[in-house]
Recover the amino acids of this structure.
């Protein structure tokens, strides 16, 4: 086991602490014993002595009162001393009762029983003296007094015996306390001397173990600080931190020799490297200038791309507005078709009434003529709506063409937009074809209306022909209703197509926004790269300066290293 300085100090101080603890334990034990003896004296012996002295005084007083009662000549004095006798006797009884608590030892109990027996005889004879003296029997009372005196003397001897026993107990307690005190003093003095000698021995030991190796290390370190690396390694046999310090010093000396030797070699390498670094920094600075110019060009191209994306975005916004108008117009066409269908239903109903009420054919013909005229007007309105749809389709086709042109300008980013624009163009052509079909149907309807008018004129002359014409008109109205239903269906399809086209256009607008955002980011990043390139150029200048300073530093370091002697 390696005895380190900490372990040595720990063991040494542990021994010292053990001695101090033993001395403290003995001191505490002695103090406890002395305290116990003092407590015994204060709580048992001294109160018992005081109580015995009190009993002695009270018995003496009782005996004196008995003698005074015997010597009294008048009755009033006798009564006075009788009262005093009873009072003092009561006090003695109370004191004896209190004293019984202190009677513990066998010898004490025996002495107390003897005392109490003699005292009872004294009390009995004294009572008899008082009684005889109160009745005038003085001679007999005097005789009893002599007998009581004999027992009283014995009682005094008993009390003195009890007091003597207490004196011996007090003396024993005192001797025990003095013996304990002397023993404790001797142990404390011897322990203090031993502890002092032990401390002195430990101090001398540590001075011898630590001082000499430390002085040797101090001299070696001083020579090392002066740059002398030719010194010999130290030899310390201590198996503690001092010995470890000597080993570490030897390792440091060997490492420092290797370090200084290697440092001299590396200083030359550093000088050559600083020159190469300076040349490389100049070349890097030139390359950085070229990167900066290229990044500026990239930034300008990105700005142009952002401008084109924003222009396309504006065109798409106009297209979305056009789609909204087209949707509104198609909805109007649908509403008119529904209204026309309703009117056609009314016309068919009137034809039915004409069949049932031939007698009022003239009135019905007039009404039918008005309805047919209304149909002609509605047909004209439908023709106008169809013309509006055709115009919207042409505008949509034109917008699709413009979108395709913008997509072509966008290049790679506009391919998806070009596909959507082509779909919009096809939808616009379909809408135009549907509108032409509706126009043809309306022309046909107008022709049928003209024929119905002629038929109504002829129905005035011939009811049968009127019935035929009414039947034919009814059929025509059913055809019109069917065609109007087709118009409604086509209008709904056109509306759905326009909504889809509007959604696609909005999607294209979102994609153009993303293209614009990406272009702006590209421009910002190009500017950032250009700024970084400029910073790098400045850094290369600093590196060139640092390389020059490094060359100077290597020269100064070479001069400093030459101070060490290997």
């Amino acid at each position: 086991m390696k005895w380190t300085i900490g372990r040595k100090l720990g063991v040494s101080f542990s021994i010292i602490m053990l001695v101090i603890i033993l001395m403290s334990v003995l001191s505490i034990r002695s103090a406890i014993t002395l305290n116990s003896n003092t407590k015994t004296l204060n709580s048992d012996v001294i109160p018992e002595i005081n109580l015995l002295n009190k009993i002695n005084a009270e018995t003496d007083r009782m005996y004196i009162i008995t003698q005074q009662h015997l010597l009294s000549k008048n009755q009033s004095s006798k009564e006075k001393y009788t009262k005093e006798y009873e009072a003092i006797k009561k006090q003695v009884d109370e004191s004896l009762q209190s004293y019984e608590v202190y009677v513990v030892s066998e010898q004490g109990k025996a002495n107390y029983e003897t005392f109490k027996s003699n005292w009872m005889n004294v009390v009995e004879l004294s009572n008899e003296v008082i009684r005889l003296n109160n009745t005038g029997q003085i001679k007999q009372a005097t005789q009893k007094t002599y007998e009581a005196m004999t027992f009283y003397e014995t009682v005094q001897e008993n009390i003195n015996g009890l007091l003597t026993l207490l004196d011996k107990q007090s003396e024993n307690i005192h001797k025990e306390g003095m013996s304990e005190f002397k023993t404790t003093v001797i142990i404390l003095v011897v322990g203090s001397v031993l502890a002092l000698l032990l401390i002195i021995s430990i101090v001398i030991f540590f001075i011898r173990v630590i001082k000499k190796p430390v002085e040797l290390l101090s001299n070696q370190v001083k020579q090392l600080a002066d740059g002398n690396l030719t010194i010999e390694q130290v030899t310390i046999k201590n198996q503690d931190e001092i010995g470890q310090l000597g080993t570490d010093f030897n390792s440091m000396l060997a490492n420092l020799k290797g370090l200084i030797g290697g440092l001299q070699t590396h200083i030359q390498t550093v000088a050559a490297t600083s020159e190469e670094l300076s040349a490389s920094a100049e070349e890097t600075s030139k390359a950085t200038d070229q990167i900066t110019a290229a990044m500026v060009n990239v930034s300008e191209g990105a700005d142009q791309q952002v401008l084109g994306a924003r222009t396309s975005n504006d065109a798409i916004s106009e297209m979305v507005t056009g789609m909204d108008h087209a949707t509104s117009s198609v909805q109007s066409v649908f509403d008119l078709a529904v209204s026309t269908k309703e009117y056609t239903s009314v016309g068919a109903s009137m034809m039915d009434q004409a069949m049932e009420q031939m007698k009022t054919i003239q009135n019905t013909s007039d009404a039918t003529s008005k309805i047919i005229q209304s149909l002609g007007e509605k047909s004209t309105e439908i023709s106008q709506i169809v013309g509006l749809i055709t115009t919207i389709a042409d505008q949509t086709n034109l917008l699709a063409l413009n979108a395709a042109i913008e997509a072509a300008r966008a290049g790679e980013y506009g391919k998806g937009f070009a596909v959507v624009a082509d779909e919009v163009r096809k939808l616009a052509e379909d809408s135009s074809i549907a509108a032409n079909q509706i126009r043809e149907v309306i022309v046909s309807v107008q022709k049928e209306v003209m024929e119905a008018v002629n038929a109504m004129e002829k129905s005035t002359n011939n009811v049968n022909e009127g019935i035929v014409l009414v039947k034919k008109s009814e059929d025509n109205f059913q055809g019109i209703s069917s065609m109007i239903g087709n118009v409604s269906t086509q209008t709904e399809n056109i509306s759905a197509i326009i909504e889809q086209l509007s959604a696609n256009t909005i999607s294209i607008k979102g994609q153009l926004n993303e293209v614009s955002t990406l272009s702006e980011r590209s421009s910002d990043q190009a500017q950032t790269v250009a700024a970084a390139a400029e910073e790098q150029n400045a850094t290369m200048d600093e590196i060139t300066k640092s390389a020059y300073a490094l060359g100077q530093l290597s020269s100064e370091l070479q001069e400093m290293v030459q101070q060490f002697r290997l």
